[in-house]
Amino acid sequence: MKIREIINTIAAFAPPSLQEGYDNAGLIFGNPDWEVSNVLLTLDATEDVIREAVDKGCNLVVAHHPIVFGGLKKINGNSYVERVAILAIKHDIAVYAAHTNLDNVLAGVNARMAEQLALRDCRILDPKPSLLKKLYTFVPMAQLEQVRAAVFAAGAGHIGHYSECSFQADGQGTFKGDDSTSPFVGQPGLRHTEPEAKLEVVLPRYLEGAVVKALLAAHPYEEVAYDLVSLDNSWGEAGAGMVGWLPEPMDEMAFLHLVKEQFRTGCVRYTPLRGKPVHKVALCGGAGSFLLKKAIAAGADAYISADFKYHEFFDADNQLVIADVGHFESEQFTVELFYHILTQNFRNFAPLKSSIRTNPVNYL
After folding, report:
1. CB-based contacts of 51: which residues, under 8 Å, 6+ apart?
2. pTM of the model
3. Binding residue ranges
4. For residue range 57-105, what is the model confidence (pLDDT) as tens digits?
5. What letter does residue 296 receive in the DSSP assignment?
6. Distance CA 364, CA 360 (A)
7. All domains in the chain, ordered by first residue
8. Cβ(323)–Cβ(268) under 8 Å?
9. pLDDT digits (tens, 9 = 90+) for 158-177
10. Measured between alpha carbons, how far is 353 from 98 in angstroms, rounded to an integer?
11. Cα angle vertex 193, ends 187, 198, to 5°?
12. N or C: which end of the chain has fewer CB within 10 A?
């Protein structure tokens, strides 16, 4: 099996196009056509993790955080990033990262956090706009179902918990091919009128290529008429953060103790308690202060995230309780998520979980 197959599997779960503009998710070191010896899963591709990969015979490290964010102008070992690069290249270790693209998918990092608290009825806290497109195409009646089935199979037609969603309007299409054509119906040089259906389906932007390819393969015409229109709709399948409900309301301090236990953290930094039960919970893996207003607007009783600055705690303004569990602690279960993705898709393949705790923050 080649590294490319591992990458494609993770990318199908967390499309790279969903990463934020500042991010650098993807294959950072290595060749996608290398044969995989084994895979080591980690939150951070540190020097110790690369050495562990060498010792355990793994030539691919899959990490959550990209080891390289900006351009490297020199690689001389003066920084930990450069030392990781040297070590990985020296030992032919490929390094792949799925970062904010894994944060932004519905079943990604935040969903894994929500599992730790058994949250129910979860949804994306801040759905992303402009990630959807509408495909319009025109199909002769006899071939309508084969075209519809093809675009559905390629991933079009999903709206929330519904699949195979489409709309059709029946009408008539006209066309006239020149002498170089071999039309499916009609004759070159003569205008032809054909009963056709206008078929409409919605699709994620990142599936455009696959859906159009399926359309062209299934459609009988030489020249397929279709339109792709960008939509401004927000999409509940992708975005930042998550919000859901605890199975039962909890006392605030009992909730904070549960959070500390479930996220295995040395401490929880939190804002003053409000004297109200916690039932609705918002959360975001990693640095999530940018979503505080969204959590308040969603009516959350508590917001779990990390990396809040001193003055940002004031912004809770007694409208909810902020629980800062630490960056590493909030995302530590990403390794389990990687493991699940790969073992579900490669039944006879056993990736390894790194034994290195990469958290640079210690608690006294």
Report:
1. 87
2. 0.90
3. 64-65, 103, 327, 331
4. 999 999 999 999 988 888 999 999 999 999 999 999 999 999 999 999 9
5. H
6. 13
7. 3-99+333-353 (3.40.1390.30), 109-127+238-325 (3.40.1390.30), 131-231 (3.30.70.120)
8. yes
9. 998 899 999 999 999 999 99
10. 16
11. 125
12. C
